[in-house]
Write a structure and sequence with these properties.
CATH architecture of the largest domain: 3-Layer(aba) Sandwich
Order of helices and strands: EHEHEHHEEHHEEHHH
CATH topology of the largest domain: Rossmann fold
CATH superfamily of the largest domain: Resolvase, N-terminal catalytic domain
Distance between the termini: 46 Å
Radius of gyration: 19 Å
Number of helices: 9
Helix content: 40-55%
Number of strands: 7
Length: 234
Amino acid sequence: MAVFGYIFLAREKEQLMPEEVQESGLLEYAQSAGLTVDKFITEENVALRSSFQQRREGGGLFRAVQSGDTVIVMRAEWILGSVRDASSLLSVWKKNGVSLFCVNLETNITLAEKRKLLIYEGGSGLVQKLLAALLLCEGSEHDDTIKATEQIQKRKGKYRGGPVPFGWEVNKKCFLVQNPEQQRIIRAIITMREDHWSYRDISEKLKEDFNLQLSHERIRRIFSSSQEKEETEE
């Protein structure tokens, strides 16, 4: 019975939540529910309204989970996609015995909970929250307009929304600039990898030296991204 933490790095700026914040929130919620996250699945560069089953990472997770498995996500709208997709997803996972915990709803929305860990608001309150989440998905019909605007901003070199790469931050003029502290961490990661440290050992070292908790998979992607950037600059 595996527990998966689903991280969604939203393309829509208003939905954006940093990856490390999501990791921390999922770990905290899992602990409160007596669970341990076995693996984080990170989805990025997809639209909020896209079908979970059709996403690259989401689709893989949808096909991989088995009876007794658990998926935890920070916000319901990040995984439900639309009313139709939500109905299909919840029906399949309920039938297959897969639990879906949404932190913002504070409950398992596919299976009945065996014990009450949090105060339950009642059916009507939960339905209202679900509808509000789904309306956010349906309200993103202006994606095409946003994309056109993003292309203009890209040509001007401005930040266009979406996940901010580790090591960078958005300044007051909406341009990406280096984050000195995170750049120092990236250099430390590169040095340790050159010394043949494993990603898990690097994770422990960062926690010790920088009081920063990053999964080994997150560190792997940070390192890969830095290597790709160096190759591009060459």
